[in-house]
Every structure is written in C-alpha cells, then in structure tokens.
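re: ur question from yesterday

yeah so i grabbed the chain u mentioned. its 349 aa long if i counted rite. heres the sequnce exactly as i have it in my notes:
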Amino acid sequence: MRVLVTGGAGFIGSHIADALLDDGHAVVVVDSLHPAAHRNQPADLDPRAEYRWHSVLDRDALADAMRGCDAVCHQAAMVGLGVDFADTTDYVIENDLGTASLLRVIHDQGFVGRIVLASSMVVYGEGRYRCPSHRIVRPAPRDPADLVLGHFDPLCPVCGSQLASEAVPEDAPTDPRNVYAATKLHQEHLGTAYAIEHPDATVTALRYHNVYGPRMPRDTQYAGVASIFRSALERGEPPRVFEDGAQMRDFVHVRDVARANVLALTGPRAVSGPINVASGHPCSVLSAASALAEAFAPHLAPEVVGSWRSGDVRHVFASTERARSHLGFAAEIDFSEGIREFATATLRN
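ran it thru and got these structure tokens back, copy pasting raw so excuse formatting
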C-alpha cells in the first residue's frame, strides 16, 4: 500500500510512518513543521519515506502528494491546551480547516479507501461517573470556587453525592471543555460527514489517551503532561503536579499508538467510527510523575502544587473493549517498562 501520513514528521506521526515502512508499505509524509511542535526539521526521520514540507491547507500541493495513495492517516494538528484563549484561531485553522482541506482534496480525487483520523480522549470532557443512587451521571464543569478550596472531584448533579469514576466507552456523550477538544470533535464530525457522502470509504477516529514516549517535544506548553514532567527533570527541577495529583489518566506508549493506526489502515477489517486507543490500565497523574522521577532522578520527587488549569477535567480513562473486538488491538508496552525507557529517551526541541 501507499499511505499518506499528514503530520508524519511529528511525535506520533513519525512513529506511524516507521511502523508502516517496517511492514513494507510506501509512505508519503506531508508536514508543515509547525513552530508549536518543531524548532527545525527533526533529525530522526526515516529516510525510506517521501517527505513534502507544506501544510494540508495547500490543496494543490496536497493533491499532488495524495496521487496514488491507497489510504490516508491524518495526524496533522495542533495539540494540547495551548497558552490561552488567544490560540483559538490557530487551533481552528490547523485542526478544523486543515481537516476540511484534506477531505476536499480526497473528495476531488474520488478517494474511497480507509481514512484514519487522530482524535483524542478530550472529546469526552469529564470521564464516566456513577452515583450510588442515580447510576451514570454527567457532572457539570467544575466550579472555580470549589477548585480554589481544593475540592477537585465532581459531585452528583442530582444529589451532591461522591461519584465513582469508570472507564469511558466510545458511545459516551461527548462534551468538549476547551478549544482543543472542540476542534478535535469537529474533526470527527467532518470525517463522519465525508463517510456519509462516500459510503465506500471508511473513516476511523482513533481517540488517543495520554500518549508518551521517545520524540516527544520538550519545553513547550503544547506538549503532553509526560513531556512537561520530563522536561522539568532535565532542568534539574521536580515535576509540578496540579490539583492533588489524584486525577486519573491512561498513559499509552507511542509505539502502541502507531500499531493501532497500522491496524486501522491495513488490518483485515475496516472499522468506522471512534475507537479508544489506551493501555486499559489507568493511573494517577502523581503516580506517573513519581515513576518518571524515580527512573530519571530519584532525588527530584514530584511537588503537588494544588493549582489547577481552566479546561482541565478530573478523571478520564478509557474502555478498550472496542479496540480489542473491532481492531484486534491491545497495548503491549507495560507502563513501568515504557516509563523507564522514556526517562532516558531523546526528546525533540
């Protein structure tokens, strides 16, 4: 197969390109080397791929790169919460307009193969919660007044009881609570619209949970929390953990994420709709920071600072049943093994 990988020079995209090439596929990478992710062209790119250094917004150049491709893996996007709300237009342009540009090009070429879209667990907003009396409930966004007082866990919106968090399945209601989350959900909606009008095409939205591993960008507010912790350790500083550190996440290794993409692109079964990509073994943010510090510099134990960020949610981790039953995917890299590797892995500038 010949596969177009947008954002294929990025953290996740480059690992996907490697995995496809190792399986014998031809890869065409389109990447704009956006300054939020790249200071310069990465030195660790696989020379077996063909590289086109332009944005997906350049439809003529994208159409040329797309010719002859059998599948599309759309990873190009701005990620993370960003600096502040002033980033809104950049997120919408890069994520939503970029996806629309790609879909317009493949529509013009009559493409009806597999399209895999990089989505995110952020589309769920808060995770899944169960009240002892009212079963599954959807808590409202957390009140800043409660957060200031250190009351971080949401309560039942009906009776105010404590809630138990559960793994989120793909059919859970979506509830994006920041700009990045809103753009990722809109990307999914655009992909769904394409699939409806092109019934012979398949659009799979892989909802990544907290991806970590080699090639993460360092020292940027657009990076994931694992990279932020690792960058602090490299500076000789303890990782700073927000809230009380008890917020639950699912950390999944980037090579497992790449393998999920390859299965969605080339596996025996074409799968439509969203699929969670996660390890299936959630842990607290504090325990993740502690494991990383222990592997990198045991004397730099994490500091729990109690502060919070607008747009963050308390607990969100995934049900992995659909990935297993539909894609045949299950994460293989244990967190303890992966975090030891990540502690000394090369990060990108």
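noticed a couple things. The two ends are 32 Å apart (CA to CA). also The chain is about 35% helix and 15% strand.
anyway ttyl
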